[in-house]
Amino acid sequence: MDTLPDTTAETVGDSAYRRIRTDLIFGKLTPGQKLKLERMSGAYGTSISTLRETLNRLCSEGFVVAEGQRGFEVAPISATEFQEIAELRELLESHMIEKSFAAGDLDWEAHIVSAHHKLAAMERLLLSGERSDAESWKQCDFQFHRALVAACGSKVLLDAHAAVYDRYLRYQMIAVVFRGEMAASEHRELKELALKRDAKGANKVLHTHIHDCVAHALRNSDWLKPVAAVKDARSEPRRKAKAG
Predict the structure, then answer these.
(1) Percent share of the chain, pLDDT over 70
(2) What is the Cα–Cα distance from 49 to 46, expressed in whole angstroms?
(3) N or C end: fewer C-beta atoms under 10 angstroms in the chain?
(4) Which InterPro entries match (predicted)?
């Protein structure tokens, strides 16, 4: 006899997925950390079988690595991957800005102004030395960048951008990236350029915004410094050869 779908189990599974994914993105589960099924089952309130399905799903998204019979661990990070993710984010976002700036209406403009107002308020708190609510800050940051591209007219692009942004955000949170007034100034420029429908100018600012964020992380993050140092050391002979 057919049975009704177990909607409770589905709800528990979805809840565990969202919580684990959030903890991965915001660095509560750290790169290389072993994910013990028994311990996580209790912490996230789900069965081991559901948890295994959730972790396999997160493997496909690049947040978790399956170690065969040894189980699962949090995906490692590297300077190279961060740069590649940043390039992909810029490629998508630049294209979406062009489409969105051309199609946006007054409601779109109002959404951008509102999103920037919230982000600017969070940035003022950070500039004052308050660093306790990093998650809210980055959520406001995402909502602002999302508002810029919201009128692009493509759900496929929006979904792809959200997925890439989450992987980019994971690096930002692990590296604790906040570039101070420079980042806040770039956000103000992006808002003004959006209201002027200047997609070319906005994409120049976006390039600087993303590139400088990555450079700042590579210089200052304890997680990424060793990798960045190796890369710089390998590049030094080539720089000297060119100089000679």
Answers:
(1) 86
(2) 8
(3) N
(4) GntR_C, TF_FadR/GntR_C, Tscrpt_reg_HTH_GntR, WH-like_DNA-bd_sf, WH_DNA-bd_sf
pLDDT at 90: 98
d(C-alpha 137, C-alpha 93), whole Å: 20
DSSP 76-105: P--HHHHHHHHHHHHHHHHHHHHHHHHH--
Taking residues 145-168, what's their average pLDDT? Answer: 97
What whole-number distance in Å separates Cα of residue 108 and Cα of residue 191? Answer: 12
Q: How many CB atoms within 10 Å of residue 193? A: 21
Q: Which is higher by pLDDT, 173 or 192?
A: 192
Phi, psi for residue 163 in degrees, rounded to 5: -65, -45
Cα distance between residue 46 and residue 116, in whole Å: 38
**Per-residue tokens: 230:** 């190796």
Coil, strand or helix at 90: helix
